[in-house]
Design goal:
Layout (H helix, E strand, L loop, with lengths): L1 E2 L7 E7 L4 E7 L13 H6 L3 E5 L5 E6 L2 E7 L6 H4 L4 E2 L7 H14 L7 E9 L2 E9 L5 E2 H7 L4 H17 L1 E2 L8 E4 L2 E4 L6 E2 L5 H18 L8 H11 L1
Amino acid sequence: MNAVPEPSLRLLRTAVRGQAGYSVMFVNAAAGADAGMAWFEPRFWIARGAVVGSVAGRGAATVFEHAGRRFLLRPYRRGGLAARVSADRYLWLGEARTRPLAELQLTLLMHAEGLPVPLPLAARYEQQGMTYRADIITEFLPETRSLAACLAAGEVGLLTWAAIGRTIRRFHDYGLCHVDLNAHNILLRDSEVFLVDFDRCSRRRPGLWRDANLARLRRSLDALEDGRSERRFGDAEWQCLLAAWF
């Protein structure tokens, strides 16, 4: 393995040439796990009886166990109109612009800064011609549930809404623009709040993007309420979140 250039000094790169193209894997050397190319194949873990769950979403993620630790294998999947062209292939613009490498680098930096994110383990892309597909593996955060799941199970207390607001502000102060901030990408564990899924996210100077992040979250929460007979989120909860954010 060869170390990749800055800013990913703690990532190790492995490349394998196949008949159709290249498979390239990046591993967080400090994660303490001997990840290999086979780790990105769900059938590898199924054959070993190591799959312990899944997480629904655009392209279901696989939760597997290895050496007493649990990890989340998430494939990259397209949404919207682009999915009609290809569900899982992206235009090749060079390795530095691949989505898994960008997400792995960003998550690694945030984890090192002490922000509440899962430990990133590894990412892979498979290039074929002018397109590629990709996957990423992160630590599975035990005993967490998404904000959406918590709302589905019952009401979320005002103290939790305040904790969510403070956590989002921490990320915003760091400069993190979460382009898909929604109720499924906020995880709760007692009084702890985590953010996940940083595909296409980036660090920016303070600006209106922070308001756009919050507006996206509000739309996500309102959409969840549309199908419920009894509201579990409304203006009181939102104002509590905003007050803590400010």
